[in-house]
Design brief:
The N and C termini lie far apart (about 40 Å). It is built from ten helices and 15 strands. α5 packs antiparallel against α10 and α8 packs across α10. The protein has about 325 residues and is of the alpha/beta class. It has two domains: about 130 residues, NAD(P)-binding Rossmann-like Domain (Rossmann fold); about 170 residues, Dihydrodipicolinate Reductase, domain 2 (2-Layer Sandwich), CATH 3.30.360.10. The longest helix is centred in the last third of the chain and has 19 residues. The strands form two sheets. It has a nine-stranded mixed beta sheet with strand order 14-13-12-11-7-10-9-8-15. A six-stranded parallel beta sheet has the order 3-2-1-4-5-6, with helices on both faces.
C-alpha cells in the first residue's frame, strides 16, 4: 500500500519516522508523500528524509494536498492537521475512497465524531484514530502489572502530562479553545484514554481547571471515580516558557509502588528496595502504523476501536462541564 501524510507539524514528524522505520525493517507498504502548506515545514522534512536516505528516495513533498493525492494515488491518508480540521478532512477523504488514520483527538465534540463514524461506515473504508499510548510499552507494562496482580491489588494511581504553552501551533490554534479544545482535549485526553484502557469506564468524573493565554483551559486536574481505587490525572500547559515537557505515572499497589519518568524508565519500590524495571521499548508510532496497515488489510481493530476514541472526547466534554461547575462530580 501507499501512504501519504497530510500536515507536517510536530506530531507528523513522529508519524513520518514511524513509516520510514517500518520501511527500513522491510515493509512493502511505503510512505510516498507528505503535504504542508508552509514552505519552512517542507524544508524541515528534507532533513528528516535525509536521515532515512536508504528508504526515503521516493517520498515527495507537496504544498497542495489535491496534487499529492492525484500524483501519488495513496491507499491511506494520515491526517496530522489541527483538531478543528479533523472532521472535515476525514469525511472528505473517506468519501473520496481513501482509508484514513487521523491524529487524536478524534474531533472537537461527539457530534463531529459521529459524522466521521458515519462516513467510514458509508464508504466502507477504514478509519482509525491515533490514540498512540495504546501502543506504548511504558503503559502496556503497567497494564500487565495491574492485570496479573504481581504486586497485589492497585490502590491508587496518578498520571501527569505537562508542558509550557504550545505557541508554535499554526496560526496559534492551540490558544483558541474553539479550535483546540484546550489542554483537556489536546493533551489530557491521552491520560483519559489510558485510564479507560486500564480500568474500564469510571462511575463518575470530576475536574477543576484554569485558563490563561486567551484559552479557557490550560491546566486541568481530574478525578475518575471507581469503587476500589483512587485515580487522578493532571494535564498542564501552564508551565513557564521553556520548561521541558514531562509525563509520568505513579501507582501504589498493595505490595509495591511503581514509578515512571519522562524518558520511559520504570522503577519498582518494594520490600525496602528500589529496582529498575527492564522491558522492551519498541517505537510506539511504528507499532500504531503497522496496526493501522493490518486493519486496512482486514484485521479486526480490537485495540483502538472508533467508539472508544469517541468516548474519550465525550469524557473530556464532561470533565470540562464539571470544571464549569467548580468540580462537581458527574455520573456517567
Amino acid at each position: 500500500m501507499k501512504i501519504c501524510v497530510l500536515g507536517y507539524g510536530m506530531i507528523a514528524r513522529s508519524h513520518v519516522s514511524g513509516y520510514l522505520k517500518t520501511m527500513r525493517a522491510g515493509s512493502e507498504d511505503k510512505l510516498v508523500g507528505v503535504c504542508d502548506i508552509r514552505a519552512e515545514r517542507r524544508e524541515a522534512l528534507k532533513d528528516q528524509l535525509a536521515n532515512f536516505a536508504d528508504v526515503s528516495g521516493d517520498v515527495h513533498s507537496y504544498a497542495d494536498y489535491n496534487e499529492m493525492l492525484e500524483k501519488e494515488a495513496p491507499d491511506i491518508v494520515d491526517i496530522c492537521l489541527p483538531t478543528y480540521m479533523h472532521r472535515d478532512f476525514t469525511v472528505e477523504l473517506l468519501e473520496r475512497g481513501y482509508h484514513v488514520q487521523c491524529e487524536k483527538p478524534m474531533a472537537l465534540n461527539a457530534a463531529e465524531c459521529d459524522d466521521m463514524i458515519r462516513a467510514a461506515e458509508k464508504s466502507g473504508k477504514t478509519l482509525m484514530i491515533g490514540m498512540t499510548l495504546r501502543f506504548e510499552a511504558l503503559y502496556l507494562e503497567l497494564k500487565k502489572m495491574i492485570d496479573d496482580g504481581r504486586y497485589g491489588k492497585l490502590k491508587s494511581i496518578h498520571f501527569e502530562r505537562l508542558s509550557d504553552f504550545p505557541v508554535w501551533g499554526y496560526e496559534n490554534w492551540f490558544g483558541d479553545i474553539k479550535r483546540s479544545g484546550g489542554v483537556a482535549l489536546d493533551l489530557h485526553i491521552h491520560d483519559v484514554d489510558m485510564i479507560r484502557f486500564l480500568f474500564g469506564e469510571p462511575e463518575a468524573v470530576s475536574a477543576v481547571a484554569v485558563g490563561n493565554h486567551n484559552c479557557d483551559c490550560i491546566t486541568i486536574e481530574s478525578r475518575f471515580h471507581y469503587k476500589d481505587k483512587i485515580v487522578s490525572a493532571i494535564g498542564d500547559w501552564g508551565r513557564a516558557e521553556g520548561t521541558p515537557f514531562a509525563m509520568y505515572y505513579y501507582a501504589n499497589f498493595e505490595k509495591a509502588t511503581v514509578l515512571s519518568d519522562t524518558k520511559g524508565n520504570i522503577t519498582v519500590c518494594a520490600d525496602g528496595e528500589v529496582t529498575p524495571y527492564e522491558y522492551e521499548r519498541p517505537d510506539r508510532m511504528q507499532m500504531e502504523e503497522q496496526y493501522m496497515e493490518a486493519v486496512v488489510k482486514g484485521a479486526s481493530n480490537d485495540i483502538n476501536p472508533l467508539p472508544s476514541a469517541k468516548r474519550d472526547v465525550e469524557i473530556v466534554q464532561i470533565l470540562m462541564e464539571s470544571a464549569k461547575r467548580e468540580g462537581e462530580k458527574i455520573a456517567l
